[in-house]
Write a structure and sequence with these properties.
31% strand, 7-stranded antiparallel beta sheet
Length: 190
């Protein structure tokens, strides 16, 4: 009698498992999924930028007029961490570029955000500003230090793309509500 009960328990377990798998299969068939959809979604950084502009002791920089295809992917402002402003983008060729600003000690901060890129001793003039060139095993960077703030444009993108981002950086202007990030609104008087 005990052996019979054990067989029924095992058989019931397999029946239950079959019902669960069948239900899971039906659910999978009816839930739409697009394998071609881009898993990376753009972020709207306007609110964080306005908040950071009010809190930061330096002019927050954000790009204006980037060509089509640049996608903002991350944004943060951490007051307790050296007033650190971060704005990350994917380039049209799917490389990463970040704008990093902070009042923290420059040497340590640059190493952190550039993943230990090293100063090459060379400079590059971008949009009338002189930037230090850094190169590293993971990220390259353009660095500018002024008035108690360090600005780093860093990422996996080419030096040309880093310079493109650096050239687009403008202080203290929020992205218009009806414009996509990187595009000016028609009524924007720049």
């Amino acid at each position: 009698m005990a052996g019979m009960r054990g067989k029924r328990t095992v058989r019931g377990m397999f029946q239950s498992m079959a019902v669960i798998l069948a239900a899971g299969g039906v659910i999978y068939l009816f839930i739409p999924h697009d394998e071609k959809a881009d898993p990376i979604k753009p972020v709207d950084y306007r609110v964080e930028m306005v908040t950071a502009q009010r809190a930061a002791p330096y002019p927050i920089l954000a790009p204006e007029g980037l060509p089509k295809g640049w996608m903002p992917t991350s944004v943060s402002y951490e007051r307790q961490n050296g007033d650190a402003w971060h704005l990350g983008f994917l380039t049209p060729d799917r490389q990463y570029v970040a704008v990093e600003q902070s009042t923290a000690a420059a040497r340590k901060y640059i190493g952190e955000v550039s993943h230990e890129a090293a100063d090459t001793g060379r400079t590059q003039r971008v949009a009338g500003q002189v930037w230090q060139r850094y190169e590293g095993p993971k990220y390259d960077a353009l660095v500018r230090r002024e008035k108690g703030v360090t600005t780093v444009v860093t990422g996996t993108a080419s030096p040309e793309r880093l310079a493109e981002m650096a050239a687009a950086l403008k202080p203290g202007k929020a992205v218009p509500a009806k414009a996509a990030p990187g595009k000016a609104a028609p009524d924007d008087k720049a």
